[in-house]
Amino acid sequence: MNSNSRRNACSALVVLCSAVLASSGYADERNNGVGPLEEGTPANDRFFFKWAGVKPLYESAPPIGYVDCFWGEPFFYGGKLFYDSGYAGSLNANIDDVSATYWATRVRLEFGDRLILRGQFGHNRYASIQSYGVTDPTSSLRDNEIIPDEGSSNPYLQGSYRATPMDERWFTITVLNEDPPEDDADRAPNTLYARPPETDPDRTQVDLRWRSYFVDEKYDVQYDNRGGGQLPFPIGIIRAGSDVVEPFQCDRDPKEQTLQLARHFTNSQAPQRYWRGLWESYPCSEAAEGAFCNDPWTAPARNPPVFEKFFSVPYSEQGLFIPPQDREALKPPSNCNQVGAPGIPANFDANYGSAYVSDEFGKVIRITARHPKTPKTYWNTPFWDEFGTDMRYWSWTVGNERVTGNIVDGVSDQQIPILDDGTYSVVVSLPENRPASATQKCGHAWANWGRHGDGSGRWGVTTLVLRNIVPSEHFQNALQNVCEAGTEAQVMGEYYPVIEYFDDAETFDLEVGCLQTAPELGSN
Question: What is the DSSP string of 4-55?
Answer without folding.
Answer: HHHHHHHHTTHHHHHHHHHH---TTS---S--S--TTS-GGG---S------
